[in-house]
Specification:
By secondary structure, this protein is α/β, with parallel strands linked by helices. The chain is built from 16 helices and 8 strands. α5 packs parallel to α6 and α9 crosses α10. The structure holds adenosine-5'-diphosphate and magnesium ion. Magnesium ion binds next to α4. Belongs to the CDC6/cdc18 family.
Amino acid sequence: MTDSDSDLSDFTDDDLFSTGNIFARRELLRVGHVPERARIVGRDDEMQRVGKALGPATQGGPPRNLIIYGKTGTGKSLVSRHVSRRARDRAEENGVRFVSVYIDCSDADTETRVARRMALGVRDEVDPSLHIPTSGLGASEYYHYLWNLLEAVDVFVVILDEIDKLRDDEVLMQLSRAEESGKTDCYVGVISISNKIEYRERLNERVNSSLQDSEFVFHPYDAAQLKDILENRRDAFQADVLEDSVIPKTAALAAREHGDARKAIEIIYEAGALAEGQGDARVTESHLEDAQREAEVNRFQELVAGSTPHVKYLLRSLAILTQSRPTKDMFSTHDIYQRYKQQAEAEGSEPITQDRVYRLLKEQTFLGVTESHHTGGGRGQGSYLEHRLMRDPEIVLDALDG
Ligand SMILES: Nc1ncnc2c1ncn2[C@@H]1O[C@H](COP(=O)(O)OP(=O)(O)O)[C@@H](O)[C@H]1O
Ligand SMILES: [Mg+2]
């Protein structure tokens, strides 16, 4: 018997396919997971508004079009998908042929892609055996399939999530005109969702007013709601694995950072994954802090990923200055520039002018990475600008090194 054989014999299938001692139902913490009603917290008004828009459709009448805005992680996708599923069930009870298709426009960002998703989505519900080519066709061919398939449908609801990522408007025009242009007898409803409230005016210009029967905003969660959301998914973890303070602490962290439920769920998942990776029996606050820190480093990395080297030298300089002076966190443009020059030269790069560095600082202020204030400096003394780094310098340095 060789060594490898004896190794293998120690290895039962239980070991081989071990799912670890931390998670029980990981899928509950996945981003696209649509939880059942009992796990959804504090979105009754929002659910009712979506329900009201879809109500007539459950009786075979025309749904109302809806536009939903709100920051990321406020439950927009969840509520829309959940309520449209329930609307479909209700419609079915009423003998109404109701089909809804969910499309994430950050994947399907062109007219052809959206038209294809709609055609395939309706096909899957209505006539799964119908073959529709997934390549080589243009938007008009997919519409053709769609309108044909919709002959067997009373109400069609399409959810266009992250609609601000959609690169052309034609599909919106097609949908808004579908009924009046006689393309279909089926009632068509559109739920448009955007994470960007600034997108509102742009959307008003872009789409026919018929797509905007009503609109409303989802607001960020507070710590108590985030805590409930996490408590309702505690069973993603094995019993007694979560240390008591982990959920409240995660909720507090996420509430401080814009009330984003997605981040809360991601961080608690990462904390669990760290505990699992380290072979620990429980998820502790320290796993949570590490997960949080890792997330911050990643986020900052994403933020600076596309920046020029000079922006990175500048941020590095400001982080180093901040770290070197425990009692001071505001620095003049001049001091920052001196440090930046050293940094650029050390990297073998020709420094840009102070004026340009100043403009880069202003850009960082706009992004919320830095903040600037005028010093007091009375008349004649000349007040000047000072800048402060709004992030933990250690995280900035880690991100820039990563
Ligand atoms: N009210 C809620 N109750 C339970 N889970 C929620 C709630 N709101 C959001 N979530 C969860 O948080 C994550 C982000 O929600 P999502 O609907 O994707 O936000 P948005 O679309 O607004 O960015 C998802 O995993 C979702 O299941
Ligand atoms: Mg979403």
